[in-house]
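Invent a record, attention on tokens:
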Amino acid sequence: MTNLDSVFQALSDPTRRAILARLIDGDATVDEIREPFAMSQPSISRHLKVLEQAGLIATRIEGTSRPRSIEPAAFAAIEDWLKQYRTIWQANYARLDDVLGQLKHEEETP
């Protein structure tokens, strides 16, 4: 089970979001992930650790390399959590559309 608190805490950092954006393109090692950032390898590794603890990425061992990859199950848990609110928001917007339509109708009617 994904802990949404740790997921949202991990996503709160722009560097970690950028790392995830990079991993959408495919698996990458620490050095490949670090390239676009002006950060040391230990700093990037700390960000990767937070992402991995949140369940957003996974690490596998390939010889001496340890590529990281996106963990889709964590994003599915976020999507499931958001779905319940999406229904509420859509209902609220539908009611707002009705009110605005009624106001427009009243303005057009002499």
Q: What stands out?
A: The chain is about 65% helix and 5% strand. The chain has one domain: 4-108. The first helix runs from residue 4 to 11. Helices lie at 4-11, 14-24, 30-34, 41-53, 72-108.
